[in-house]
Sequence to fold (719 residues):
Amino acid sequence: MSALTLAAGADPGFLSPTGVEIAFVLVGIATLGAALVSVTTKQLVHAALWLVVTLGGIAVEYLLLTAEFIAWVQVLIYVGSVVVLLLFGLMLTRAPIGRSPDADSGNRWAALAVALASAAALVWVVVDAFRTTWIDLDGPAQGSTKVSGEILFRHWVLPFEALSVLLLAALVGAIVLSRQSPADAPAGPDAPAGPGASAGSDKEHR
Amino acid sequence: MPIPGSGLAKGLAVTLRTMTRRSHTAQYPDVQPDLPPRSRGVIGLFEENCTVCMLCARECPDWCIYIDSHKETVPAAAPGGRERSRNVLDRFAIDFSLCMYCGICIEVCPFDALFWSPEFEYAETDIRDLTHERDKLREWMWTVPAPPALDPAAEEPKEVAAARKAVEKLEAAAAQADTPTDPAPEGGAGA
Amino acid sequence: MNDVLDVALRLIVVFAVFLVMPLVIGQTEHKVMAHMQGRLGPMYAGGFHGWAQLVADGVKFAQKEDIVPANADRRVFQLAPAVALLPYLLVLLVIPVGRGEGAVGQVIDAGVFFALAVMGVGVLGSLMAGWASANKFSLLGGLRTAAQLLAYELPMLLAAASVAMAAGTVSLPGIVEAFEWWWLPWQITGALVFFVAGLAELQRPPFDMPVADSEIIFGAYTEYTGLRFALFLLAEYAGIVVLCALTTVLFLGGWHGPFGGDGLGWVWTLLKIALLAFAVIWLRVTYPRLREDQLQKLAWTTLIPLALAQIALTGIVKVAIG
Fold:
């Protein structure tokens, strides 16, 4: 982490914010607002589109912290793929124009409590961990591709590999779940239907 | 077995080759089309030949030919002769909004008064303006091309054959009259 | 002050390129497609061989009524063309035309990722348009767009990753700087995969199922008229510019050329872009539209394995050299 942080010696303080800091706070507020709308809106697809704004806002925050690579990966994966997948799923199932009355949940208060608790935990952890670290934005980019790559594959290579194993497991699990088991197949080779045709069609199904 | 992808390459070659060749587009208003002989553009009327026999109007499947006429008496050509009556054409109109360009009127005309013209630029903005009167039809006569030449091995047209036979007969007669080798027995035989 | 002027000048130049290049490619498509089909194409607008046809089209689009269907989601419907068009403008900013700082709108450290990420966002516009039109055909078009993007984003990224591995950097000028002529045979598979996947992502024929006019009218753009429709069309042609420029920069060596010094680098870049754009048009004229299942099959069973093989090859050669 040494590359990302500087010693706490030159503490700039909160009372004289720089332009970047002001922009950071403003974008943060906008992102938070978009996230709130995304959760509370009654229109399904609008929620997904507000999610785009939220994720884009987070990408801008990364950019302001000079973590360029992370920002673009955020856009590429979250905005370009995850949200598109989400929209795809919505359109494939149900995406009415206008309000959907069943978009509300009875346990919204429980959800709010969980959200607040997790937010508090995250804020507390982050504040506690990085209280005295400041990123020097004026010098060479601290979050450039080179620096990110070095940190990722030197200091954090074990969590990285663990994550990839996790994702691989999820992938395999998804494939297993979506595969038809031979017992469920509509016309297995043992089925008393057509003698040869059913086996052939079954083979084609795979 | 063909190389995989050779079909795709062949397709690309076809389009590229077409691009290098001349295009087939007819640039009509800028360049007049080169029409084939006997194009059915419009029907022209050679009214000097018309005798108001009404055959065309009666044969027309669409009833799109309108003919008005009256009779005139022509004074006798010679003193003491009989007066003759003659049909005079007052109106000859073809409604081209009805005409289906079958050409039956032209086929049926015994006096060669109707002809196909290749002229085709006579569109109108009002359908009623498509009924063209005899002056317009007469003007179109000027656009009628000379009939195309016959095929080299074609049979001689009947009219030409008849005319040629008549000419040959006359020539033969003249030749006989011109050969005075032995006129007396000929004349005697003839008498 | 000088900095502001510099930035403004760069933005203006990029914007001008963004407005002019798609029109040039569109006009070329009109004429090339016509001649490939034995026609002449536009001949009247502007006088000489219809050079001003697209200008005339633009005037026509501007005069048309801007219609929003009664049941449509108004704001999303109106926002969609901008979402579709703007990303391509952003990508043009980072594409280096020649050597040095002066020939690129803005140097970005992770240029490859930026370009691919932002291009992916452009597809969001089609999705929004398809959903917000309140039309089943549009929705189908939107669905097909999404499925196509998901299938082809991956091979495109993998092919780009291969060339980034070869160059040892993800910055676009850096990749061109590192280019050697023998990369051409080395990265040819990656280049083909990238170009084909890019065509599919732009929904260009033969990958235009999302706008298949014989099946779903005009897909997501069915309900659009006037300027908003023109913006979608402009986005398509801007996308061609961006795809050809990216392929040039990543795989064809950008400003490197067999002869001509540093000063003429931009000529080489533009020449390569023009050649690729011609290929895009050529492919459109030649091939019929793929079926939806053929499209998915091509992506998952052909392009992705090819891209992975290219990455493996790149890695092996890289290790062997190093």
DSSP finds twelve helices and no strands in chain C.
